[in-house]
Design goal:
Shape of chain A: elongated
CATH superfamily of chain A: Hotdog Thioesterase
CATH topology of the largest domain in chain B: OB fold (Dihydrolipoamide Acetyltransferase, E2P)
Structural class of chain B: alpha+beta
Helix content of chain B: 10-25%
Order of helices and strands of chain B: HEHHHEEEEEHEEEEEEEE
Strand content of chain B: 25-35%
Largest sheet of chain B: 6 strands, antiparallel
Radius of gyration of chain A: 16 Å
CATH class of the largest domain in chain B: Mainly Beta
CATH architecture of the largest domain in chain B: Beta Barrel
Number of helices of chain B: 5
Order of helices and strands of chain A: EHHHEEEE
Structural class of chain A: alpha+beta
Oligomer: heterodimer
Number of strands of chain B: 14
Number of strands of chain A: 5
Distance between the termini of chain A: 19 Å
Strand order of the largest sheet of chain A: 1-3-4-5-2
Radius of gyration of chain B: 30 Å
Largest interface: A-B, 41 and 42 residues
Number of domains of chain A: 1
Number of domains of chain B: 2
Chain lengths: 138, 318
Amino acid sequence: MSVGRRLSQVKVGEELPPLDVPLTAAIIVGGAIASRDYTPVHHDRSAAQATGMSDVFMNILTTNGYVGRFVTDWAGPDATIRKVAIKLGAPNLPGDTMKLRGRVAKVDAQAGQVEVEVVAKNNWGDHATGSVTLALPR
Amino acid sequence: MPDRALEQAFAAYVGQPFGPPEQGRDPVNEPMIRQWCDAMGDQNPVYWDAGAAAKSAHGGVVAPPTMLQAWILSGWRMASADRPPQDRQEELHALFQQHGYTGVVATNCEQEYARYLKPGERVRAEAVIEAISEEKVTALGTGYFIVTRTTFRSDAGDAVGSMLFRVLRFKPEKRPEAQPAAGAAPAKPGRIPPLRGHDNGWWWEAIDRGEILIQKCSGCGALRHPPRPMCPECQSTEWGTTPCAGHGSVHSHVVMHHPPMPGYDFPVAIALIDLAEGTRLVANIVDCPFEEIHIGMKVEASIEEMGGVKMPVFRRIG
């Protein structure tokens, strides 16, 4: 991960280093279990298929976890995430790739915060779109 | 048609807590944090390296903020599909299920973090069914959005974070491909024709003949559009028409991307046109790059068949 960003270095429009996550069953099942989400559709293929999906699909906590990681990979260990707001779309399935992209949308020097627009795309479309608000050291 | 029986039944749930606060089974702990970081590929040292964390803005090891809900989920218990509802939220979902709203998809998740949690802290969650929408038609099917809000508190009682969660419960749309292959694909739907009523049918009949007309009050001579039975100036209900030359300028405009309507090539430019005669008309602007459309742009009308319906459309002139 990068050394980290300070508020004074960040400008609106700055793009975050892209992150491509090849999606495996291990990531999907592992993420669900690590978040203590044993809902069958996230670990049991036949349960997922009963809902019309082709395979197990990623739970929301894992999506949030990846969005948080994507932003702090860029922002560094001194950043503090204040808010993650996402709209959910195309499910993440094994064999696909989740492509995370981000861009600084707002810098609030007074509050010491920045807002990053994030999109996570897969082969179906937008898996998640939204924004992350984080405080950075000055 | 909205399901009135269902709507009456679910109204009782709005504003209700799920039940008593949900206590996290285990305190915030490093093994669960490490397992989470492994699954997320998260190498931020503040989540596991005591030395690096102490030197950081966090002053010590903290849990990833996005892990908030993991501290209160019930884990293994969630795996049994046939268990009876455990709280009001599950009762509510069972109610939707019984009424045929078998589909469920999460659409929004918004989490705010007042502070990061440290190993050893216990978390509890107070969740409320905040709102249920009116019936909505979506691409997945007809259904209702359910909004819940959860406040997470530490054992000290302070609110460490909150979550807004929105899900759609829907009746899955019958997909065309699910029908037996009896022949060609169903015909692509065309445009929805304008509604023609007693008060405006004459205007569309003129369009069919290739004329744009403007309604004119027989009492005071004021022009008006869209057509209506009474003059807003003098309240006369006597009226005639005057021809419109089809010249005007853009008063306001929008490029519509969503939701796509049948029979149009989206995106489409829609403008409010100031006609030279003084009334305004809403119509599509065609053959003009969207970024060049601007307020005041001179335009000229023609009547064309678009998607099976005759319509006035405008093109840039000059």
